Amino acid sequence: MADPRDPYQIGSPNTGDLWVMHVKPGDKVKKGEELFNISIMKQEKAVLSPVEGVVRRVVKFADFQGDRKMVPVKEGELLVELGPIPSACSGCGGHILLEDSKYCPECGQRL
After folding, report:
1. What string of pLDDT tens digits covers the 111 residues of the chain?
2. Phi, psi for 35 (deg, rounded to 5)
3. Neighbours of 110 (CB within 10 A)
């Protein structure tokens, strides 16, 4: 279950069917960006990111247009976990995902 006090844990707003997940692990999302859609009693509900961050994990995935399958979800069930945006390299501006990195993975500059 998602912790409602943690803005980085995004759960299902209601019991219904997850029919499309728009993000995957590693994606950067902005506050207000659409993460996934839930079908509730034949009505679509878009779930938006409450914070800017990086997708750490996607617990359930659905792509109704691709495979014609919906995934049942319960209210409050954790579907997406975000994390804070990592620091950036001063040389190229690339994101550094590992806190203990000594070199930028994009340009190789020593940090």
Report:
1. 999 999 999 999 999 999 999 999 989 999 999 999 999 988 999 999 999 999 999 999 999 999 999 999 999 999 999 998 777 777 777 766 566 667 777 788 877
2. -100, -50
3. 7
User: What residues make up the domain containing 47?
Assistant: 9-84
**Do residues 49 and 22 lie in contact, with contact meaning Cβ atoms separated by under 8 Å?**
no
Number of domains in the chain: 1
Chain Cα centroid distance, residue 94: 20
In a domain, 72, yes or no: yes
Q: Is the pTM of this model over 0.70?
A: yes
Q: Are 53 and 95 in contact (CB under 8 A)?
A: no
Q: For residues 30 and 72, what is the distance between their CA atoms, to the nearest angstrom? A: 26
Is there a domain that residue 50 lies in? yes
Residue 30 domain-assigned? Answer: yes
- Encoded tokens for 52: 């800017």
CA distance linking residue 78 with residue 12, whole number of Å: 7
CATH number at residue 20: 2.40.50.100
